[in-house]
Amino acid sequence: MTGKQPFEAVVTEHGATVARVCRAVLGPADADDAWSETFLAAMRAYPGLPADANVEAWLVTIAHRKAIDVTRAAARRAIPVAQTPDGTPAPAADSTGGRLDSDLAGAVARLPAKQRQAVAYHYLAGLPYRDVAAIVGGSAAAARRAAADGIATLRRHWNENERSVR
Amino acid sequence: MNTDELTRALTRAFPGAPGDMDRLRARLAAAAQRDGILDVAYRTVDSPVGPLLLAATEAGLVRVAYASEGHDAVLQALADRISPRVLNAPARLDAAARELGEYFAGRRRSFDLPLDWRLSAGFRRAVLGHLTEIGYGHTASYAAVARLAGNPTAIRAAASACAANPLPVVVPCHRVIYSDGRIGRYLGGPDAKRTLLTLEATA
């Protein structure tokens, strides 16, 4: 009988997506910690996960909780760097992407937390709004609105940037 | 710009680059080992008989697999029979990889590794347990092995046990051949068996 796939395959299939989500929600400084905590917790619980579970939604749910833990731990450390006053993460460093992409990361970081989460879970992880709502709380309609508001802000930001670059 | 373009831009803005993933995976493997939840660690090594998959539990080496067995299928079987908490985590296999490297270089005649026998039971387990008594460079017949395992008439069962050895090379089922000189079945195929016997005859 073939049961659950080896956990290694779960990391291969979903590792990059969870990394993107952690970066979008937390910013680059804390994303690695959140990724590691997420997959460690997931591996611990994996044998008990129902065989028909949606693994990606399960991982993003864990990542969401770990991101909250990491943010709280960072707040307790209270080192006032890389953290803007309203608790949003600092923008991603410009590494592989161009200036526009890096600016976009900054714009994501400046979104209100609910919008940032809704954008990350729906647009980066590809979860339906029903699943996004189950993770962040509230209704699917509210999750859809939060994502739409976030995307509208990002689009505005992108268009302005594109104009200024030209 | 439309939403698809924006989604693609978002994906670029938050990379999940392969280099990053290697680093994160190594960190996960170390943390899982530390926390005692790395039920099965594995890695592959190159060898004169093709890439070998090595897998170990906390108790010891549990599986050596030839490419012809299908490494993905072997990993799935380990997930089914032992635990799905399986990770590519080379550190636990460092000693096994080193000793196999020495063996294939002709510099090692026996293995000094903790073995986890949980994938074999009963008479098969008894047969495999006696194989290390056949010294490096020697061969024995299936009949002799059946006798060693305490059931001289169970020659076919002894042959089956050798053919299903979960720890080939390390547990030397390749040293068991038919008394008329035919080479017999082997998980890695007859060529691999011949390669090992030739290596041991000439090293």
What is the topological layout?
The complex is a heterodimer of chains A (166) and B (203).
Chain A: H1 7-26, H2 28-45, H3 55-77, H4 99-110, H5 113-124, H6 129-136, H7 140-165
Helix pairs in contact in A: 1-2, 1-3, 1-5, 2-3, 3-6, 4-7, 5-6, 5-7, 6-7
Chain B: H1 3-13, H2 18-34, E1 40-45, E2 52-56, E3 61-66, H3 71-81, E4 86-88, H4 94-104, H5 122-130, E5 140-141, H6 142-148, H7 155-163, E6 176-177, H8 190-202
Parallel strand pairs in B: 1-4, 5-6
Antiparallel strand pairs in B: 1-2, 2-3
Helix pairs in contact in B: 5-7, 6-7
Oligomer: heterodimer
How do the helices and strands follow one another from N- to C-terminus of chain B? HHEEEHEHHEHHEH
- How far from one another are the termini of chain B? 68 Å
Q: Secondary-structure element order of chain A, as H and E?
A: HHHHHHH
How does the overall form of chain A come out from the CA principal axes? globular
By DSSP, the count of extended strands of chain B is 6
* Mean pLDDT rating of chain B: 94
Mean pLDDT of chain A: 86
**Low-confidence spans of chain B:** none
Class per helix and strand makeup of chain B:
alpha/beta
Query: What is the total tally of β strands of chain A?
Result: 0
Estimated structural class of chain A: mainly alpha
